[in-house]
Amino acid sequence: MPRARLSDEERRTRAILSNRRYRAENQQEYRTRERVRDRRFRHGLTIHEWIAATVIAQDGKCYLCGDPLGQRLIVDHDHLCCPQGFSCPACRRGVACDRCNRLIGQVDDDPALLRRIADALESVLGPTRARIAAKPAQTDLLATEES
Fold first, then answer.
1. H/E stretch holding 146
2. Residue ranges in 1-137 assigned as alpha helix (H)
3. Digitized pLDDT (tens) for each residue of the chain, 147 residues in all
4. Which domain holds residue 130?
């Protein structure tokens, strides 16, 4: 007996249900594939090659602080060229660690502001550390209050 042909709407519904089932059964693989697709859209087709070459050129270290790069590699770029989350070869500056990327984002990529912050921090570190060294230990303070 010949099978009845499915309408376009029935085929579409079956395909949607099949895709949902696949995604539910293969969540990790699906997320990885979506992440790769998202990076290609945001940074161009050769972003993976660019990241690999840049990490090698940077000896596996953050281009800002010089610490070893962690699991999360961040493509630092100039936001004047491309919006946040996107980049092109012209505005990419390097691969940064998460900490440095957040830091320069907080100061709007302003090196002068970073210098002022570093100078101010440096000027108060010595006196603060001296006060900390001179104060009684917490355990001594607790013992005195209990007496």
1. helix 138-146
2. 8-25, 27-43, 47-57, 98-106, 111-134
3. 667 787 888 888 888 888 888 888 888 887 877 777 776 666 665 678 888 889 999 999 999 999 999 888 899 998 888 877 788 888 889 999 999 999 999 999 999 999 999 999 999 999 999 888 888 877 666 666 665
4. 43-146
117 and 134 in a common domain? yes
Mark whether 99 and 85 lie in a shared domain.
yes
The reply to whether 107 and 38 lie within a common domain is no
Tell me, yes or no, whether 36 and 81 share the same domain: no
* Entry pTM: 0.58
Q: Report whether 88 contacts 82 (CB < 8 A).
A: yes
Do 47 and 35 sit in the same domain of this protein? no
